[in-house]
Design a protein that fits this description.
Four copies of one chain form a homotetramer. By secondary structure, chain A is an alpha/beta fold. Chain A contains 14 helices and 16 strands.
């Protein structure tokens, strides 16, 4: 092959290597996303640093990263050792240098992402290969171990089951602080929080849990005030920011907390914020030690699957790609609001006012008989509408002995039936159009008694 | 295309569909393993039943199984929704019929595997997408919630960190029952267990934890007697069967327990028993309710990754494939013993007698100065020997305030230096040969002071 | 799994199966492109109909579609038997029903594409798994076998080597008909064609070869007039439509031919028209027999690779996708013209007028010394500009004894130096911007003697 | 990550890079096969040297290696440019340095393979991305162009269609030299070859074509004597060694030719010798110029698919892997002979003696009525036996005007019905067992008139 042509190819290779070197050195998400083959080359390179992929190796242990099914090997890019060591999720594995590097790097890239979407003062970020609920539970157990006398958790009511279950699983006692209605909107009952702290005694409280992203008309919690209480009374504070990284409004609330109050951990899911499969949880905070304490409480090695999915997704998107997703989402939220308004007007309903919820919207269903509400939900579902939720008043639900009035509405006193819909990242305009169209038809059908 | 040829192709297709139908209906591992493309077709078929893969769909929720990076999509076979629902790991997901079927089926196939390797009375089996340590912790939390006054765990000492950590992470108090030496072998101190139960009171004990598979010269615990104590005193009993499914000797011990005693849960890892990547845990038991209770305590949705890896591995192996692996392992254990004996004799050392350990072997290093022991370990490691462990007496280790004398040797009184090696499934003859060769050379080098 | 959820999944499956059934039945490109996993499922289904993928099979021949390397198996989707039989490229293979169906279907979809882009009267289309040059040669050999006394080919000069070589490889004698200059444009010398036919005698001529798509300032040949000559004198006529499917202007010329004249075969490449890897050739015609004769002249079985690439590409694009590509290309051609004009003006050069070339453009380089022309080309190449060609006058080239004056310019009398650039499908706006930018800088550098 | 662990990973990486460097430098098949991920890393590295995979590139040509469908891109490992240039299959492509290197390297590895299996004096080897028939045709056209007056091909009859068709496709005239029967075996009629040369005149003959591997009871041609005739009379000589690389007996015959006679080209298929998909052809010779002449006669660029399949297969197998395949095949041939003998004895038939055929065997079917013979064949086929051929006497076939008596038996005078079966590389013992079992049952069924 002629030297001239070869040189051009070698130059191109150097450029690519530089791009990758920069990611490894700067530990930042690249400006522009990488091509698929570039991502694969980097991942393969890392995998080849794990001992199970060495050319010569003599494994006489019980855990040698062996993979017997080729399809499994392939889909795991030859990674077999998982991440972490028995005592610490963030520790490196001697047998798995490549996995360890990828894991560390992914956590750095996630910190970069968190800062990039507005939480500039975040100090450390860690991916947990478990559901957010389980990660919240592990955090509660960690706080509890440091506050041996405490066993109460103050919880701003949000009707999402796993968020409540995690308190029970940790064998702690929840105090449910119901939301208060301000106009249509359901807001944090800050007074009741303060009251409970005084009544129960701060030393008896393991943690305060607040939530940002949620279904309308519930608002993002008043995390700033709760953060102040946390600081004043020296009670740990976890923010459940489930899918909040995608909204600058929500990330701004979190960033504000730090200025005057205290937040120990902010917990969110990988799938909902990064559009990858369910299974991981991003935890960040403003104090390295708190994160490290939770990581050290993870007993055993963990799957690398979530790391791999997140790592590849971040490299694929680049800063540009994620920023674009976030912007599109914001525009689609406005679009959904407009269309939702139209269909509401047509059916003599209205959109509930909930300014502090930038992702979800709710439309009343007051002109429909209570007996028809479930039917609306199931008719939409069989028409391939997913994610819309119909809330009928007076549903009662008991979870492990704790009773919730008006389950689904985040508030004991709700008496308005409604349907919610959200514009999250990854939604498309045609999905919204389809939803509005199906909703309109279903409501008409119900009214005409034809269903 | 001529009808004749087409018919033959259609017949072949029917055969394949029958094979798959049988797996779905009988819920048993197929006799012979499936071809890669057959596995892929089944997995793809299941994936196409999840709503994120529907042709027309209108997602207006925050969790719609969207995957943005094609590489991630591909490696997850288009599965995005994970498994379980917020309240229960074993529950089906409305949006993810295919995932739900695969999950249920994988659990049935695992039960079939457990029964096939000798634990015929197993009633229910569940794959947890977490490390064994974390799953053990979740089990302890579950038992604790049912025994509110108890907070002690009786633990037969085994020097494997995550198994101990899980007790601490659950905020429970371990009572460490040291092993006793019988000849070379370290056996369960059954008397001390009985003694502690009497002293502490059964109602104050959350659980007994015993271990089967371990490093020589520790023996498999006397699980049968511990199971009797569990039954007599009505204390839950977890067997940590880490990599024990691969040995008929160990599975036989477990099966025996049931006849006269009680075992609540048997916990083991997917990677070590099934040769797939780290990250999952197989839990089985003899009482459906116990398993269901733990599953219902998992807060949140979980990753499908472990399910997918295990499902594909089981289909790939078939009963034949797994049986072959188990037989080969048994033969290689005898081979390792023979070769290990030879190298021991050559260096005036001996193999420690440990009849109740069918996987791991230990060779003394008594002719070596204590100061050289670490060097042996690290020289082996740089020569690509992994999994061999050099145990020097008098190592002390403190885990969260608990002190262990002679850490690594499972016994406070050990005074013999030794090295362990194991013949686990997946090991090859050439790995054993390589290990013996490197070991011989390293010992010679140390003796000749050349290192 | 609940019946309700299962039904929705089954409905979705039926929808997908319907979509595929329609493709198989109607043999038309789907309106909208298929998702990757849908394409894979269809391809896998077809592969499973080939005997090498049957569950039980007893091969005792020398050609059983065995594939030993898993990576090769995977990338070929388990297809191993190729297409065609020893005597006929279009024949079905008894051992490979799936391959045969895919092959037939691909040819039907290609015919649909050809009609869709404007050649409505096309009757049959066949994919040849060889370069266009080789396929043209095979066509010439076929015509020759039917005209035993003839061995001359009349060839409208186009300076693209393989198009000329194919005549020589077939052991035939080319008569080169030079283009004539009309304004800037190089057009077909129709008179000379007629003259040569009369001089040489139609019975001595194997074929007329004309070309549509080419580098400016050569125009698309006057295929309509040549088609008339072909009909009048009963001489076969091949149109080399190399990358002409992407332009409605060119396809229109071809469609017109049929009305008053004769075209036997139209030959074009798969890579340039369909954006898939190099290697295949699309042949279509207006008379089934002619195509079949060439297919029957292919000696031996052929690779399925090209079929697979084309099949998947057509399903991926759908009619919508291809139409979009064609429209974008047209717009980018206008964009290139505008930008090219600007840079020409800046450097006191001009765009050569060539109305009958809808893809390629040429800019003069008259203000540059002849000695600098090669440098311009190589400087652009090292700056990652590819596809631009600098033509210097007075280049002489000899191919197997045939001498070409002004090689590269399609005309013996050209005395203008120029550079060409094309807007083909798949080009992006940013590529054009990059080219213009680099061109401008290179020209400046040359002028400033800095290179 | 600790420096110690990192160093071990870096060492492992160096080892792997050395392995690859050696392949690139020595241009020999590696002793041991590479792991899948090692093959992929090398292939990806090469692909990244092609201009279509450069980070920045400005393509303004019509052929820029663009691939629009991700599945196609993936399966082609991002290679898009094909191999060769318009004038020469072996030439490098400026835009595709990686493809060019892979192509050159594959040809070197193939030469190494050819020498390794016994043809030590082979000088040059080239992979043609076409069927063997088409490659033979291209070779004939090349010889013809150098012997303008000749147009006869002397062909030792073998009843395999594409081998005969290639002469006709090249518009040449075949002289069919029937085989002669020696015992059961059909051997080369060397006398008639000599006679025809004298009668027709050597200068009128384009080429002699002989065949090695074939169906019993035809023997490998007496290539040594034909090679002497070729040398004496200065007539080109092509050996059709279709699937002969897998037999040392056959390669030995070819190697012997060179000592006293002349062979110009030896042509064989990739799929049958290397167990990869149909589509390629290996051409080697003892004189570089002859191979180059044919390569230069290929008009146009060609697909890289065959190169990729062959390259990966050779790296996967290594010398060890191929040698093992060849040995296993030899053993299975003996096994087939034994079992075939048994079934023949049982049905009062016998194996035809054909010592010079090391791959195929034939068993008489003399006790069956002629009317039942086709039924035997089709019953076997519907029972998934493929590759076995039933030959009934007195079949007549006409190919393009040439008449063959007893088509299928390679000889005009055959009057024995028989069935052939072969033991080729890749066959398994269980396939042979299945075949023998099905054959036995079919013959019984026919005899019992039950079919």
């Amino acid at each position: 092959v002629s030297a001239n042509y070869l040189n051009i190819a070698i130059d191109a290779r150097k450029q690519r290597e530089n791009k990758i070197k920069q990611i490894l050195e700067k530990r930042k998400i690249p400006e522009t996303g990488l091509e698929n083959h570039e991502i694969e080359m980097l991942v393969n390179e890392l995998a080849s640093m794990d001992s199970n992929n060495f050319g010569s190796k003599y494994g006489v242990g019980e855990r040698e990263g062996r993979i017997i099914c080729d399809l499994v090997k392939k889909r795991n890019f030859n990674f077999g050792h998982g991440i972490g060591r028995s005592g610490d999720l963030a520790e490196n594995q001697p047998k798995a240098t490549g996995s360890s590097i990828m894991n560390k790097l992914t956590n750095e890239l996630l910190l970069d992402l968190v800062q990039m979407v507005g939480i500039r003062s975040a100090k450390k970020c860690l991916l947990f290969p478990m559901a957010t609920g389980m990660t919240m539970m592990l955090s509660l157990l960690t706080f509890k171990s440091q506050r041996p006398d405490a066993n109460i958790v103050l919880w701003s009511r949000i009707d999402q089951k796993s968020c409540f279950k995690c308190i029970l699983t940790a064998n702690l006692h929840p105090i449910i602080i119901d939301s208060i209605k301000v106009g249509d909107e359901l807001q944090t009952n800050v007074k009741e929080f303060e009251n409970q702290i005084n009544v129960l005694g701060p030393e008896n409280i393991v943690c305060i849990i607040s939530t940002t992203s949620c279904f309308a008309p519930r608002a993002c919690d008043d995390v700033e005030t709760l953060a102040k209480l946390s600081k004043t009374f020296n009670i740990p504070h976890i923010i459940n920011n489930a899918y909040g990284l995608q909204s600058f409004y929500l990330t701004h609330q979190i960033e504000q907390c730090q200025k005057t109050g205290n937040v120990d951990l902010v917990i969110q899911s990988t799938d909902k914020n990064l559009l990858c499969p369910v299974g991981g949880c991003i935890v960040f905070g403003f104090n390295e030690k708190v994160i490290n304490d939770v990581a050290k409480n993870y007993a055993g090695r963990a799957s690398l699957s979530q790391t791999l999915d997140v790592f590849m997704t971040l490299l694929h998107l680049g800063r540009e790609g994620y920023t674009k997703l976030v912007k599109e989402r914001k525009n689609l939220f406005e679009y959904l609001k407009e269309k939702f308004n139209d269909v509401a007007a047509k059916h003599n309903e209205r959109i509930l006012q909930s300014q502090k919820n930038p992702i979800s919207l709710a439309m009343t269903l007051e002109s429909f008989d209570d007996s028809k509400l479930t039917m609306i939900g199931s008719m939409l579902f069989t028409r391939c509408v997913s994610g819309a939720r119909v809330i009928a008043p007076n549903e009662k639900k008991t979870i492990d002995g704790y009773e919730f009035l008006n389950w689904g509405s985040h508030n004991s006193n709700n008496n308005i039936p409604y349907i919610t819909a959200a514009a999250s990242i990854g939604t498309t305009k045609s999905e919204i159009d389809g939803f509005i169209d199906k909703l309109d038809k279903v409501l008409l059908k119900i009214k005409n008694n034809e269903s």
